[in-house]
Design brief:
- This is Sorbitol dehydrogenase.
- It comes from Gluconacetobacter tumulisoli.
- The protein is an all-alpha fold.
- Among the domains are: about 35 residues; about 100 residues, no CATH class.
- It has seven helices and no strands.
- Helix 3 packs across helix 4.
Length: about 220
């Protein structure tokens, strides 16, 4: 039977029978679980909650661009860059927010923004999302490049500039059929050929009778 009063390098004084090594391992696991959960599950770190101003900016951006799948992280960075570039930008977004509450397409919101003297604010916001830059000028803050909305319409057939599909010199290969994305993960059959028109025979023509010479007078 072990002596409960024995002390040494392997026994913790406050807990008889609990080794120092066990306590250190338990403390390390608890610390990692509390301070760095992303280390236990890579890629699953909790996303930072948006502030009220960022939530408003994201909602307004979805309304004026017509895209409901905007990236919240890009929205956060873009809003911060716009606030640093344009004084009082938060108040402008708040004014646009009131104009978007009535709903409607971006064209309809633009008409209301023009009446409220917010046309340039809305157009500047749309341009920022489509170009990924705060301003159309040299050395303007660049917030997004690959994810700029202007590259979406041709994303299935053309890469974003400076990027490429698959391997280098991919453009030397035979292009896919129309409607088939270059980056399609599985082969997609080509669309069927257009139907061939059926030609109907011309209607039968009545036989033309030969003309008779006029009768001679006697």
């Amino acid at each position: 039977m072990s002596d409960p009063l024995r002390t040494g390098p392997d026994v913790v004084e406050s807990g008889p029978g609990v080794s120092r090594r066990t306590l250190m391992m338990a403390t390390a696991v608890a610390g990692v679980s509390t301070l760095a959960p992303e280390m236990l599950a890579p890629g699953r770190a909790a996303a930072r909650a948006l502030s009220a101003d960022e939530e408003r900016f994201l909602a307004v951006s979805k309304a004026v661009t017509g895209h409901q799948d905007l990236n919240p992280d890009i929205a956060t960075r873009l809003f911060a860059a716009m606030v640093r570039t344009f004084p009082g930008y938060g108040a402008r977004i708040e004014a646009l927010s009131h104009l978007t509450q009535a709903g409607g397409k971006p064209e309809e919101i633009l008409a209301r923004a023009e009446e409220a003297n917010q046309r340039q604010t809305m157009l500047g916001l749309v341009a920022a999302w489509f170009t990924g830059s705060v301003q159309d000028k040299t050395n303007a803050p660049m917030v997004a490049y690959y994810d700029a909305l202007m590259y979406r319409p041709t994303h299935d057939a053309l890469p974003v500039p400076t990027y490429c599909f698959a391997v280098p010199a991919w453009w030397t290969e035979t292009p896919p059929a129309l409607g088939v994305s270059v980056t399609s993960p599985v082969p997609v059959p080509a669309p069927p050929p257009p139907p061939v028109g059926i030609q109907s025979p011309p209607p039968a023509q009545s036989k033309v009778l030969p003309t008779k010479p006029p009768a001679k007078e006697h």
